[in-house]
Design a protein that fits this description.
By secondary structure, the protein is mainly alpha-helical. The chain has five helices and no strands.
């Protein structure tokens, strides 16, 4: 069966939220620094913001997208284990973020498996 939506379109659409979130990590660095469970918060927020922007660009231009997908999956796995699971027991809204990140983790792996 032929795909209704081409893989390239799906890859670009998947990249858009990471581009947006990565830029927001940099714009709101000071406000987000306190959310990092690992000090120094500003460093980790900036690093993950830059990484998300680079992953998004990689998906959009389809260069090193396999590597970007697997690295993004690793990042999301770490977010799930270090941030979402511990905070979920104290903040019910984190449970929604946990489910979202699990879906994005799966999408990242699927994208990596199809990337170049």
């Amino acid at each position: 069966m032929k795909n209704i939506i081409p893989d390239r379109i799906a890859m670009i659409v998947f990249a858009i939220p990471f581009l947006y979130i990565g830029i927001n990590h940099l714009i709101y660095l000071n406000q987000m620094a306190g959310m990092s469970p690992i000090p120094p918060g500003k460093f980790w927020i900036a690093l993950t913001g830059i990484a998300q922007i680079l992953a998004a660009i990689s998906f959009i231009i389809n260069v090193k997208s396999k590597l970007a997908g697997y690295l993004l999956a690793l990042y999301l796995l770490l977010v799930i284990l270090i941030v979402r699971l511990p905070m979920g027991f104290h903040d019910p809204t984190q449970n929604l973020m946990l489910v979202k990140d699990i879906g994005l983790l799966a999408g990242s792996i699927l994208l990596a498996n199809q990337g170049k």
